[in-house]
Write a structure and sequence with these properties.
With about 140 residues, this protein is mostly helical. It has one domain. Helix content is about 75%, strand content about 0%. It contains 5 helices and no strands. Helix 1 packs antiparallel against helix 3. The longest helix is centred in the N-terminal third of the chain and has 34 residues. The protein is elongated, with a radius of gyration of 18 Å. The two termini are about 15 Å apart.
């Protein structure tokens, strides 16, 4: 099997949904890493707010589990578990960010809350998209 055939087979197996899971898995991994190793000195308002709810290491582990789930399910045909984990984690983060607009000191910016809420909706919509059938959108 040539390298090109292997690449095409992997790409076909991965599909659009799997590619999105790899992308969001990477984001979750990096976000978890940033929570596990926050910058020295004062925490940002949003990190302090989430540290008041749970220790940042716990949040980092949760993001890490979501990341591993996304990576593990990216090449599978039945990837619902990864999408549920992703929507649940981003939705939870969005919920507590919105709450932080009202109870955090200093308040969390509306922009952060709107970004997380929008991302939750976007991922939820992506989770419902069916994978395109083979041949419909091949660019080969």
């Amino acid at each position: 099997m040539t390298a090109l055939r292997v690449w095409r087979a992997l790409r076909r197996r991965l599909g659009h949904r799997g590619a999105c899971l790899l992308f969001f898995g990477q984001i979750a991994a990096l976000y978890g890493w940033s929570l596990a190793f926050p910058p020295r000195g004062a925490l940002t308002a949003i990190n302090q707010h989430f540290a008041d709810i749970l220790p940042l290491n716990v949040w980092a582990i949760m993001w890490g589990v979501v990341s591993i789930t996304c990576f593990a399910c990216a090449f599978k045909r039945h990837d619902r578990l990864a999408w549920v984990a992703l929507v649940a984690m981003i939705g939870t983060w969005a919920f507590f960010t919105v709450m932080g607009m009202f109870v955090a000191h200093p308040p969390i910016a509306v922009g952060a809350a709107s970004i997380w809420c929008g991302l939750t909706g976007f991922v939820w919509v992506m989770a419902e998209w069916p994978e395109a059938r083979r041949g419909e959108d091949d660019d080969d």
